[in-house]
Write a structure and sequence with these properties.
By secondary structure, this protein is α+β, with helices and mostly antiparallel strands. Helix content is 40%, strand content 24%. The strands form 3 sheets. The protein has a 7-stranded antiparallel β-sheet. It has a 6-stranded antiparallel β-sheet with strand order 10-9-8-13-12-11, sandwiched between helices. Strands 15-16-14-17-18 form a 5-stranded mixed β-sheet, sandwiched between helices. 30% of the residues are buried.
């Protein structure tokens, strides 16, 4: 391996041991030793030249080359960036090998930034709320790196337009971050800066020390943060200034080039358009949700009895029609209960209509609470008459349900001294249980249940009667 004109890394997954030739040792700044562990490569990060995904050496062997056995990576070193062509091959048993050619000792920055911009543009086309931070951070790192800045950041104005917030920040190795300290910063603390932003949407300073006397506030803040040079571009939505994207240098001064300005402006415009699209999506989603809520509310109003707050006659008619058809298809039974408050007119006449309305509400609530299954429906049929639809319930179970209704009404213990059936409020109940056919109509079902209710009333009220067809 030592005679080969390229770098070689050999890996045994059973022992987790790496072996390298001298060329690879020099490339990765490894100390000379017989073999290496994963920890020996922890200082090395390779960046995919096109996708910008960062990988450790060990990840190349584990799963990166499953689909493609060759790729180009950038290795960043203190004095240069190396463009590497990396080839992978699986050997016998647990062994695999990587061969590395150095394609370029100084990766062309312009070409590299072109790929970065392409990736940023692709990422931001369909940006979503849940990944917006990731893409912004990537964009800031990219523009900060190619502009040779120590920091890059995004600021946005608060809704009142009076303060600004540092929402995202990238800092180079060893550089202090200030994001947490730059929240709710009043605009009037940086008057010169914002005057420039409003008039030109640009703030370009090669040497902070040369700022004019009008920028004393800005100079003080910049010097506190040890900023030597700063470049910021305004972000606009529909011609309105809503924030800015910027870079600064701390280690040494930088004479910002027109290329730096173009790059920063390009990324800023991409971010502004992404935010605009995100706002449009959010507004559209809010409008759609408002329409859904309005339709839901309207549907509830149309299908709910205004007094008792349970289903009204319209909802009852639609539900009965649908359940008859469904039970006919499935050859399942269905039951309809009709119930009437006994001597309700006497109650109204003697206790007053206000108490009468309260009684209707209590009875409706009791009936509604008994309908626990999906598909069960309690409705106000009209006046003091209520109806309950019970899909997939036969005669025996409907009889038990009707008895339960009477128990619950008795538990209400509503005094009715003007009833000849009981000194408390009672219901007369009629029901019809059957297996419908495709020819069964709602009118027929209601008529039969009504006949049963009439029989319950005629036999003394506070009774339960079921409909039985005459022989």
């Amino acid at each position: 391996m030592e005679l080969l004109p390229f770098c070689v890394l050999f890996y045994d997954s059973n022992t987790n041991i790496f072996k390298v030739n001298s060329q690879a040792q020099r490339l990765f700044d490894l100390k000379e030793q017989p073999h290496f562990k994963k920890a020996d490569f922890s200082h090395i990060t390779l960046t995919n030249h096109h996708s910008k995904k960062e990988l450790l050496i060990e990840e190349l062997f584990i799963d990166y080359f499953m689909a493609n056995n060759q790729c180009q990576f950038v290795l960043s070193k203190p004095t240069s960036k190396l463009l590497l062509n990396v080839k992978f091959a699986k050997l016998l048993n647990s062994n695999s090998i990587i061969i590395i050619d150095i394609l370029n000792n100084n990766v062309d920055e312009q070409y590299d930034f072109g790929n970065i911009i392409s990736n940023i543009s692709t990422d931001l086309i369909d940006i979503q709320n849940d990944d917006v931070d990731k893409h912004i951070n990537y964009a800031l790192k990219a523009v900060g790196t190619v502009c040779h800045a120590d920091r890059s950041y995004l600021f946005k104005f608060a809704e009142d337009g009076k303060t600004i917030n540092n929402t995202h920040e990238w800092v180079n190795n060893g550089i202090q971050a200030f994001k947490e300290d730059l929240q709710d910063l009043p605009k009037n603390t940086l008057p010169y800066f914002f005057s420039s932003m409003v008039s030109t949407h640009l703030f370009r300073v090669n040497d902070v020390a040369t700022l004019p006397i009008q920028a004393i506030s800005e100079k003080t803040i910049f010097q506190q943060q040890k900023i030597k040079s700063v470049l910021c571009i305004g972000l606009r939505y529909d011609k309105e200034l809503v924030g800015f994207i910027g870079c600064d240098c701390v280690v040494q001064h930088r004479n910002w080039t027109d290329l730096d300005l173009i790059r920063l402006r390009l990324v800023g415009e991409m971010l502004a358009n992404a935010f605009k699209n995100l706002n449009y999506k959010q507004e559209l989603q809010q409008t759609q949700q408002q329409l859904i809520n309005a339709n839901h509310k309207l549907n509830k109003q149309v299908n709910t009895d205004g007094l008792t707050n349970i289903a009204n006659r319209r909802c009852f008619d639609q539900t009965l029609k649908c359940e008859i058809k469904r039970c006919a298809r499935n050859k399942e039974p269905i039951s309809l209960i009709m119930c009437d408050i006994d001597f309700f007119k006497r109650y109204n006449d003697n206790y007053g209509h206000q108490l009468g309305d309260e009684v209707l509400k209590q009875v409706a609530k009791a009936l509604h609470n008994l309908c626990k299954r999906e598909g069960d429906l309690a409705a106000r049929f009209g006046g003091e008459e209520f109806a309950i639809i019970l899909p997939a319930i036969d005669t025996e179970h409907c009889q038990r349900f009707a008895a339960l209704i009477q128990e619950k009404i008795a538990e209400l213990a509503i005094e009715h001294n003007f009833s000849s059936a009981s000194k408390y409020l009672t219901l007369s109940i009629g029901f019809y249980s059957f297996i419908p056919s495709q020819k069964t109509t709602p009118k027929e079902v209601i008529t039969n249940a009504d006949i049963a209710l009439y029989n319950a009333k005629e036999t003394g009220r506070n009774k339960i009667a079921r409909f039985e067809k005459a022989n």
